[in-house]
Structures are given as C-alpha cells and as structure tokens.
Design a protein that fits this description.
With 186 residues, the chain is mainly α. The protein has a domain at 132-186. It has helices at 2-17, 22-29, 32-41, 44-58, 64-78, 82-95, 100-112, 116-129, 134-146, 150-163, 168-185. α1 (2-17) packs across α5 (64-78). It is globular, with a radius of gyration of 18 Å.
Length: 186
C-alpha cells in the first residue's frame, strides 16, 4: 500500500512539474521519420548528433507524469535495482501503452534479470510502435545471442545497421558472431 501511495505522489508531482505539452510532442515526434532517413544517409560525425536527437525524442511519452515514471525507472535501473525499475517502467507503460521506449527499457531490465521471455515480448511491443528503434533491434540481437541463436542475432544486427549504419555496438557484435561462427565451421 505504501508503494502505491508513493507512486501516486510521484505521478501528481510529475503533473505539477511537467513542461512538455502534447501538441509540442506531437510536432517533434512527427520529425522522427525524417531523422531516421537523415541518420541512414549521414556520415559518422553527423550520425552522433542525429542519434542524440532521436534518443531525446524517444524518451518523450507525451505525458509529464509518464516521463517522470520513466525517469524513475531509469534511476532505479542505473542503481542496479532492476525490480524497482521494472515496476516504474510497467507503470509508465500502463499509462502510455504506445510509448516504445517504456517497452524497450522494461525489456532491458528484464534482460538484466535473465527473464528472456518477458524481455522478448517487450521488445516486440517496442518494435510494433517504432519499427526503426535501432536500440530495440540491437537488444533483440543480444537476446537472440543469449538464447544461442547466433544466425538470427546477426540478422538483427544487420537490421540495426540498416537503420543506423554507424551503430558501433551492432558492428562489433556482428563481427564477433561472424568470427565465432567461422571458427566453428573450420
């Protein structure tokens, strides 16, 4: 009961603190397709700036209270309290079920707890709402690797690189799998 009251207080505080209006968010979110297109064609230096802008937009749910819950989830995640982070991300998703970053963040927390089934379901939801969410595609590849499906993981990394050609982590993971698969064939 105390946790519920604390969460309600957090939501009310977020409503009072909130500064982003839904119309402002809608206008910014409409720029995501253009940013994805620009990212695909960008050089490495320009891609870094585009990636930062895309991540900024990903983290805006359209609701100050949901953004607040999401940030509470991030704080718990960064402190290693994955159970609490899942609770906050779950609350954010409950209030904003189309918030792709909420689904992805919860999937990431589930992965850290080795709950791969729920993580896969959440990544599926994140990609349903934003098919070009390159971190979700990257996360899918990492999960597939953990599930000993290297060929599918490579496909996911290829897809992530198709969206974001300068995503260093995807290149490194793909190269590592390619080398290990070649080593097994020899």
């Amino acid at each position: 009961m105390a946790k519920i009251k604390a969460t309600i207080k957090l939501v009310f505080a977020a409503i009072i603190i909130g500064t982003c209006t839904v119309s402002e968010l809608s206008a910014e979110q409409n720029s995501l397709p253009d940013l994805y297109d620009d990212l695909k064609a960008a050089d490495a230096e320009t891609a870094l700036g585009l990636e930062r802008e895309i991540k900024r937009l990903w983290e805006l749910s359209g609701s100050p209270s949901v953004d607040f819950l999401y940030e509470k989830g991030n704080s718990a995640f960064l402190s290693g309290d994955y159970t609490t982070s899942i609770e906050h991300y779950s609350a954010a998703i409950e209030f904003a079920p189309e918030f792709a970053m909420g689904w992805f963040a919860r999937a990431r927390a589930y992965t850290y707890m080795n709950y791969y089934g729920p993580a896969l379901k959440d990544i599926e939801k994140a990609l349903l709402f934003d098919p070009r969410h390159f971190y979700a595609v990257l996360g899918l590849g990492q999960l597939l690797e953990k599930l000993d499906m290297p060929f599918l993981a490579v496909k996911a990394y290829e897809e992530a690189l198709e969206i974001h050609p300068h995503l260093t982590e995807a290149k490194e993971l793909q190269d590592r799998i390619d080398r290990s698969v070649l080593d097994k064939k020899i």
